Amino acid sequence: MQNNAVDPSPITINTGCQTLQGTRTIWFRLAIIQATNFTFQIEPTGNVDYDFAVWVNADCNNLGVADRASYDAPAAGEYDTGLNLTATDFCETAVGDGQVQFLSLVPGDEVIIVVDRFSSTADIFNLTFGDPDAFDCSIVQTVACDGDTEILDATNPNALGYQWFFENPIGSGTFSPFVPAETSPTLAVTTTGNYKAEIYLPLGVTDSEFFDVIFYPQPVIASPPQDLYICDDGTSPGIFDLTENDDDVRGTQDPLFNITYHHSQLEAMDGTNPIVPANAYPIVGSSETIWVRIEEPNATCYAIDSFEITFASATATAPPSPHRLCDIGGNGQEPINLNTTFDTIILNGQNPLEYTVTYHDNPADAIAGINALPQPYIVTGSIFIFARVQNNISTGCFATTQFNLILGPQPIANPAVDLYQCDYGTTAGVFNLTDNDANILGAQDPALFTIKYYQSYQDSFDDVNEILGGVHIIVPPSPQTIYARIEDNSGSCFDLTDFRIYFSRAIAGIVPVNASYCDSDGDGGEFVDLAVEFNSLVLDGEPSSGYNITYHGSQADADNGVNAHPNPYFV
To answer: Which CATH code for domain 419-505?
Structure first.
């Protein structure tokens, strides 16, 4: 490389061992594409002294202190200088040997090298690299996106003038001037190309700056991504296929455009931490904002947008069916408040403040959430009811179930009569309670109703502990209350009544056939207290409180309970 130009405005080169104003310099910028122990050699064709400095990942506008440098004063025949694998120093002055330590670099690193011809003697040198495959030494590219305007800046404070050129065609190495001429220090470009600025400096010096500009296609969000929704009916997991939005976002754009999904706007902008796999993402919580990024293959130009994913739940538990109502008024219709009666069963533990239950007379209305039945609802026969449970927060999430309502006849328990039984022995009384069936049924159709008997009101209400067969053996004391239940054949509609059963044991003890009394006052007769004289004998040990004892002049009167003797009785 020929290095005979003199820079009228030299850049100060700062290193760890010396500072230099390089007036005869050439600069190189390289992009590292594979890991390497980076070395190079500057090999003059003549006996000429060259110095150099190297920066890694430096800012061109503020280079700072060089990472490697050599300012040695070479002895005769030792003019080569550079980085090698054996040197151990990083920076050397005039007493050095011209070699400093290599740089360990990785892909993505950028290297800036400045070579300064310290000697005033014009010369040409060769620059060779130990691992030339490890870097790309082409002109550093400027990348932009279609639709952008890139400003190329060749400003030099000492410039006397400028002229811009473009490579025509690209890759030919031939640069043509713009027509009309572009003579500003900057150039606005909107298309891919290689551009050159010639900078006219004092003393007839001309400097050239090259710009390689690539405009990549600018992706757009073809259609806004759709919010995704999963409604859990108790069986669906909250796993989302985010790629359902791929077609909306890409539209008719290049199928090579890459689409990724991210948790935050910053991650989407930076293209970092994509959600993987995007087609099976388990939601965090019940709602989450997801960011989508579409980028061209070089990942330089992109567009982003966001959408919501929501995971909600709603279940509907079917109540016992059929549910029977009783036609209490006997008019063929009966009101029922469906919400009061069934909401708790259908929600089955779900918070009633978070869900709304509506009732419908057909499945289509229940699914659509329209035409809810009024409350109370009038039932006139047998009907299927369709219940809808809707999530109040995520109103698109709902579940449905159904059950049957049946209106049945309301039985009427007509008054029953008390039953009596008198036993002359010592066995407890056996009552056939069904003797009251006809009384309780009245004019109602016996084919539609059933009559049962119980020993307590609660048993009759709950329909438990029925007196089987209607045969009841009474155990004194008497009387005893019996509770009757008349119900329709489903057992759902019923009415209650009660009556008493009475049981008496008539036991006459042995009394004297003849009893003699003295006429104490000679009036031809005597008053006898029959109760005092004979009751204890008649009762034969039974308690007197349970019996009424009368005395009669004939067996017939005693059997019929008529013409009882007064007491006391005059004999």
So the answer is: 2.60.40
